[in-house]
Amino acid sequence: MNVGNWLALGGAAIVALAAVAALRRRITATASGRRFFRHPTAVPGLFAIAAPVVAPYPPYFQIDITNPDLPPSTQFLLGTDPYSRDVWSRLVYGARVSLGIGAVAMLVAATIGTAVGAVAGYFRRWVDTALMRLVDVGLAMPRIFVLLMAVALWEHIALWVLVLLIGLTGWFGTSRLVRAEVLSLRERDFVVAARAAGAGSGRVIFRHVLPNAAGPIIVSAALGIGNMMLLEAGLSFLGLGVPPPAPSWGNMIADGWHKMTVAWWASTFPGLAISLVVMAFNALGDALRDALDPRRAGEEGGEGGGAA
């Protein structure tokens, strides 16, 4: 890595630190923001997800095919892989793929799970029974087995199909969570008043019930992104996910695992990246749970009142 790349990396890091500091000042102006940053893992999680990266080489560029598996150095920050490609550059580009798949798949799962859970919890009776039995069947089936069977039907699966498959098999837990929230909210006074005013079921659900259940849904989505990423990494490691040579953290591990004794860096650094980012999302989920918990707000209000 030359001096220009090091300067670019340092500049990107400074800009990211300044942006996070400004974001923190704005967020901590509210009580929920203070609870978020009070969480011991919130700031490390935020930095891990928002960390800037600069790739000195294209992800497919083979530097010197006659001399692969170069160890980490000032020129190649994380070394090169068995195909003589820069591990740092592929890690950067692979982050776009792995994070993108995890986020979009979780968006699909959260959307379907929220819709099913809201309908089941609001209408109850036979609608609730039918939908929850469907959820029970989905939870009872091993998810990885379902995905392997689905992926096996295509010789070369498109990336958008992979994202849909991961999302369509991951909404069952979210639906249970949303159903429980809606069952609690549907008997509240503001919902009863909306129905008495003539509001239809759709308006009551989307304008009154779901906005008040947004906190648990957001926390569940933040925690679920890490699970989606791990699932994609497992499929890619098996050769059933993102097709090589496109960089994905899962297939990067697969490229170098057979040379762990002589070139440990090719698989170790992608594995560490997956672990750190998943832990970061879990940390953010915990912090969001504390920030959006109304009981914490009540405790803070009580403490403030006592101090006054």
Secondary-structure topology with pairs:
Layout: H1 3-27, H2 31-38, H3 42-50, H4 87-123, H5 125-140, H6 143-152, H7 159-168, H8 172-185, H9 189-196, H10 201-209, H11 214-237, H12 249-256, H13 265-292, H14 294-307
Helix pairs in contact: 2-13, 3-13, 4-5, 4-7, 4-8, 4-11, 5-8, 8-11, 9-10, 11-12, 11-13, 12-13
Describe the structure.
This protein has 308 residues and is mainly alpha-helical. The chain is 71% helix and 0% strand. It has helices at residues 3-27, 31-38, 42-50, 87-123, 125-140, 143-152, 159-168, 172-185, 189-196, 201-209, 214-237, 249-256, 265-292, 294-307. The longest helix is centred in the middle third of the chain and has 37 residues, at 87-123. Residues 47-52 and 301-308 have low confidence and may be disordered.
User: How would a textbook summarize the main sheet?
Assistant: none
Oligomer: single chain
What is the radius of gyration? 23 Å
What sequence of helices (H) and strands (E) makes up the elements?
Answer: HHHHHHHHHHHHHH
- Total beta strands: 0
Portion of residues in beta strands equals under 5%
User: What class do helices, strands and sheet pairing give?
Assistant: mainly alpha
